[in-house]
Please model this.
Amino acid sequence: MVDISVIAWINGLSALAVVVMCIYIGVSFAVKYKKERKRLQPYVSVLGFIWASSYSAVIWDLLSLMTTGVNVTPVQLAYLAYWNVPLVIVLVMFLGFDLFAPESRNKVMIIYAVTAIPYYILFFGFTQSFFTATVTPGELVNIAMTGILALMLLLYVVSALIIVAGGFFQLQRRLTGPEKRNTIYLFLGWTFYPLGALMETTFPVAFTPIARVVMILAFYFLIRGFTGTVPKAPESIISTQNPVQTE
Model:
């Protein structure tokens, strides 16, 4: 049986903490929807479970090392960690634009949904051409996107940071009371989330637990933002159409 390094343990346990947080999001917002019937709650719940599946790749690799002494293959880990990237950005855009620019929501979702076509063609058809992997005895597999897929991932992350976080920043300036407070939480959540994703995919393995802390903070702010009084824009940021009704 191979000796598992301290870094691998920290990496795996920090990923477990993120998975627990994501499952909590999935379950709690499903329960909230059953009781409160607020229409955005199911989408938040689904997003929580999807996030959990990504980080479960790290846990799977750690369990494999613990039980067999062998890592999971890099291709299997890539499939589990990155299969959902386009789906996540579509849901993120929906949750953002539904609140601060509903008249543009469907157009934006279509644009990002179309990008899923080349993503999945390359992802499933040429997986080994767009991923690199470092496999060291006693360590978890370190996989990274390369080429066009890496650029697409960067586009998605920057979109969440600039468009969604920026939209909530503008929205909070026009609100007061609980709605303003929750909008600030959403701004912080959608700011920390892409920053955590960037750190996760670019930092050396030894520093990935820091990225997980940032991600947990993001999820905390998103939970606070989508709980209670969900913000309603007095008018869309992009146009002056009808007010947004979210509850």
